[in-house]
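Holo model, DQA. Inputs:
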Amino acid sequence: MPKPIYVLSGPNLNLLGTREPEIYGHETLEDVHRLVAARASSLGYEVVCRQSNHEGVLVDWIQEARESASALVLNPAAYGHTSIAILDALKMLSIPVVECHLSNPAARETFRRKTYVSLAAAGIISGFGARSYELAVEAAAGLAR
Ligand code: DQA
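Output:
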């Protein structure tokens, strides 16, 4: 069995389902995690799904992924637009990183157009709601092979 794909989510994504559903959809984060687990399993991978509202915790998990993961799917949420600490942690990874967003930040406020995470990601999947995560896991599994 290969190492799992880490699926990490940043701040406020624990509120999915009730948080601005017109933007982020009605699925809860648990629903999203179930979807990605099923998709990953069909591709021969397990997933480790975690969410934190804290930047340093996300940095710790990204560092952990260096040894423990086959690939990383990251929805950095607002930290994608602000966090050089997360970018620096991602730069230490030799596994593929796929950035993922439920909404399409490029079609929203201008401050969402820049993401530091993109500088270290193989690619971005955004705008497909919960399906963004599934597509990101698929891309990550493809890159990890
Ligand atoms: C988000 C987009 C970000 O701009 C925002 O801050 C989020 C969620 C998304 O999944 O669409 O919290 O990453």
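The first helix runs from residue 21 to 24. The radius of gyration is 14 Å.
Archived with the compound record.
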